[in-house]
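S.,

As promised, the alpha-D-glucopyranose run. Input:
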Amino acid sequence: MKTFFRSLIIFVLFLLALPVVAQDDVPPADAPYKNAGLPVEERVEDLLARMTLEEKIGQMTLVEKNSIKTEDIAGMALGGLLSGGGGYPRTNSAEAWAEMVDGFQQEALNTRLAIPIIYGVDAVHGHNNVKGAVIFPHNIGMGATRNAALVEQACAITAVETAATGIYWDYAPVVAVVQDIRWGRTYESYSENTEVVNELSTACVNGLQSDDLYVLATPKHYVGDGGAGWDTSTTDNYIIDRGVTQGDEAFLRAVHLPPYQAAIDAGAMSIMVSYSSFDGMKMSAQKYLITDLLKGEMGFTGFVVSDWKAIDEIPGDYYDDVVTSINAGMDMNMVPYDYPAFIDAMTDAVAAGDISMERVDDAVRRILRVKFVMGLFEHPFSNPDLLASVGSDEHREVARQAVSESLVLLKNENAALPLAKDVAHIFVAGEGADDIGIQSGGWTIEWQGKTGNITTGTTILDAIKEAVGEDVDVKFNRFGRYNNANDESGNPIQAEIGIVVIGEQPYAEGMGDDGDLSLSEPDLGMIARVRERVDKLIVILVSGRPMVINDALDEADAFVAAWLPGTEGAGVTDVLFGDKPFTGKLPFTWPRSVDQLPFDFTNLPTDGDDSPLFPFGYGLTTGE
Ligand code: GLC
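Predicted complex:
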């Protein structure tokens, strides 16, 4: 009986606490929150005071665009929409993206308070879901450049190309400090080294949130996503992705946390929480790490967003997941599908007193603050002036330079590199030599990426032909078989140069968790075949991480780690043929065997069979 009266009192108090605001109260044109000349906090408080509970909960709701009923954007006063990986419109062009996003935005601006939605996308190596956009090397390659200015420039270009399509929120950069390269998201990370990640992720935040153009950065995934232990994942058939972060709090603070402080100091105003767990608890439920540490001790004043349906992975029923995560400090829930269920759970939880109005107001205050800071009220729509720059030659030149600086030369013997351009014959082999999809990797047009001619770009084979011109006989065979390549006497041609591209097929997230990392038998067979037919053999590894390459390394005269270079394959040949130098340095320690993983970086042998094949920071320069 007592419980009943307690609930009744709470409910009555809840009704009394509701602002007496009629749903059809349209604020005056001179309402303070509409005045860009006023301080942000004044605009926040004015707008918050005008909002109903429904409008507040709407702001905390982030929905995937393929799940939305357009009328619900206004009907439920939603605060955010996103395109998940590959979430393109029916026609995948920059113009069609802009039309789609602007259409959603107009719905939001038709509401009583006209609060613009914030539309988010994973533009993690360029505006990579958009056909025709420039695709930069994935972060592992940018890590090999060690060039913060170049990273900043790449992220600034990404901001221009996303803003051209009406998108001012980028779920980037990943600031994971990856401890085990068997993780399928290794290539999204700059490095195993905290200082490298600090420097380059901050550069990307600065590039996205520049004075000229503000696209909200989202350092992710908070915290320790890159430190999960092998075989600790409980998600689908993933093995390490979304697993349990290893080490104690002191280790977490020393290795995984610093990039977040660096990003906050650089002005980051949204942070995405990780699927992983720490200390036996899902990150989405961690009140100490989200509220006390991130928002308290580290002074984060932006908003915290969940990962895709991540709060559902908290043990317990959905209502409890919502209560636990919001009370832990989650401000915006990437639902992404059943948004009415989230809104109902929130409404019930506030009515029952399981989530306080103070917590709701804190979350909405943070969301509104960010929308005001980024100028979304003043420029909610796409910028058509930027459309022509999407995939422009100027942007591609920067990406080409990034490719060149990302390549790491692991071996160079027999005076192999740089290659001469005035030879008679070049044999090229490997599926990856002529495939934009393979050289771009995951998070490209599709969530998982895709092989084939999936977007505009230059393959490594195209670039080789372009580099040497028509007088050189370039023969390509994806399997390395040149049976009909004979001279006038009918003898098999011996080519001066052989270039073999090997590596990984595209993947993303846990789909790329791999405990083997060995080269495929077809790749090894191809290397052996080409070896027989060429004077100098160059092997190029196109992969999202170091692999076990010992046999291939022995066969090759030169061996290049190219990572996932993206659309500008000419950046590879610029360096192969000596137009630019090799300068890249390993962002990850390279194993001899997977049995060495995970490395104990505090106690790495420097020689002998237990030592790495190549240490962090290794990289030859041309002519060494
Ligand atoms: C994914 C990823 C996250 C991404 C989000 C939206 O599952 O974990 O990095 O930003 O969903 O696509």
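The chain has a mean pLDDT of 96. The chain has two domains: 19-388, 407-596.

- D.
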